[in-house]
Fold this protein.
Amino acid sequence: MTNHTAKKGIFKASVLQNRLLGDKFFRLTLEVEKKAKTVFSKSNPGQFAEIEVSSLALPPENAIPPQFADASKRNVILRRPFSFADIMVSEDNVILEILYMIVGAATVRMKTLKTGDKVSLIGPLGNGFSFSDDKKAALLVAGGMGAPPLVHLAGFMKEKYPNTDIVVFVGTKSVSDLAFFDIKFDKFDKKKIKLGEFEKHNIQTHISTDDGSAGTKGFVTEVLKKWIIENKPDINNTIMYACGPDRMLHASAAVSSEFKIPCQVSLERRMACGTGLCQSCAVKCVDKNTGDNFYKLCCKDGPVFWADEVVWQ
């Protein structure tokens, strides 16, 4: 398996846009200083950056969601981790695409970012997804805010591994929770949706929602399992990549085990430093040879792990 993980650095970045998508997501586009080109040109999907937010101001009180009114007043000391929906490296610059939603004091402040503002970031951090030339099919499973890294992964694989057939499975609680930049609704049936990020690459995509408001009603792993049963992919030439909440990843790991399809999972953890110093993002793992349990760090050893090395709880 090939892993393109790069070195990291501390860089300044300029905000190109910070646009509200729907009623809960923001698309943050950053232009990173030119010297970042060396490390980001060698980065791979699944890595992340830690962004400095302590100096950002709060928005007006009436622009703060009521559920975060108290939390927003807390001091934000630590950087915050964000995955990439895309990384574009050219001769002149590095462009990072990040999708985020308001979940606390830091992201409440981030919504005030405007074109031309400067931020500091550390990245690319962690170990991302790894790849193998002998895998002719890839099943990408995204749950909730786990979508952006898999959008990046799909584009990366189409460029670097064009002969690999990709099928995407996306699951959310409701249609309003689809974490994508380009959502296209059918004129006659609002439950039929196309995701532009995958459509532009002609990637087969299956959408499911818990409440049935878009695509198939039910869990994304149920749709995944049904597809595997019906299509019978060659397990020796197939790999799964999954990103989302632990419950969904646990279910993805179970599907991986049942059908003997290797699976890489990108875990979500609180990562205070992003470099392994604070030891706050421990992941319980198992030694597949001895059966002994031990711990790895999500920010340094991950956030991508093999599904069968994680102790699911």
Residues 186 and 192 are 6 Å apart (CA to CA). The mean pLDDT is 93. The radius of gyration is 19 Å.
